[in-house]
């Protein structure tokens, strides 16, 4: 579902997201949001009715931007080689702007405040796993990789690729080597395993 916003609504939603990022939902008051957006607090209520509605629309709006980007990153050509696909995914995720990665941080914090809606982080995970499963099923059907459970292989790749980058970008953990070297080593372990020959 695409959320359509007019200019004022978009300013308010962006301001809300900036404040949520910096201070969390509980400290994101409509007064602060209005000041950040450069509008009157009455305008915030007129456009969004209440803070909860504004927060939900803000999350949904930014979440959709991220999901659209992830769909593009994990999309593939039918003739794309496995190593090329995985390396490109890793590099493109590593190069996502901080602003787009921030929705992942908000989604991870959303886990603590479970709502009736499906958790944002679960939706992000499902989007990526579905793409991986589709890609690996094609690779198996084409005889490019041996027959394994494509969902399990997708989960393995998701764990390494996505979670390493989340630690790297959100929590400022340092990956010892730059993204290309890291992805090359990951692919070597994936293809060759850890068993001594």
UniProtKB/TrEMBL annotation:
The keyword DNA-binding applies. InterPro entries: Homeodomain-like_sf (IPR009057), HTH_TetR (IPR001647). The keyword Glycosyltransferase does not apply. Residues 29-48 bind DNA. GO terms for molecular function: DNA binding. Pfam families: TetR_N (PF00440). Residues 6-66 form the HTH tetR-type domain. Keywords: DNA-binding. This is TetR/AcrR family transcriptional regulator.
């Amino acid at each position: 579902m695409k959320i359509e916003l007019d200019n004022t609504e978009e300013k308010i939603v962006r301001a809300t997201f900036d404040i949520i990022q910096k201070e969390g939902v509980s400290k994101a008051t409509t007064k602060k949001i209005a000041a950040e957006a450069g509008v009157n607090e009455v305008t915030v209520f007129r456009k969004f009715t209440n803070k909860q509605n504004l927060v939900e629309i803000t999350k949904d709006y930014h979440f959709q931007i991220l999901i659209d980007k992830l769909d593009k990153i994990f999309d593939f050509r039918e003739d794309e080689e496995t190593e090329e696909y995985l390396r490109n995914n890793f590099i493109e995720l590593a190069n996502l702007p901080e602003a787009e990665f921030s929705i992942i941080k908000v989604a991870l914090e959303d886990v603590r405040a479970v709502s009736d809606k499906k958790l944002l982080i679960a939706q992000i995970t499902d989007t990526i796993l579905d793409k991986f499963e589709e890609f690996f099923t094609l690779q198996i059907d084409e005889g490019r990789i041996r027959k394994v459970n494509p969902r399990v292989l997708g989960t393995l790749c998701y764990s390494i690729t996505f979670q390493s980058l989340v630690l790297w970008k959100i929590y400022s953990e340092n990956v010892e080597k730059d993204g290309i070297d890291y992805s090359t080593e990951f692919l070597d372990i994936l293809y060759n395993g850890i068993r001594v020959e």
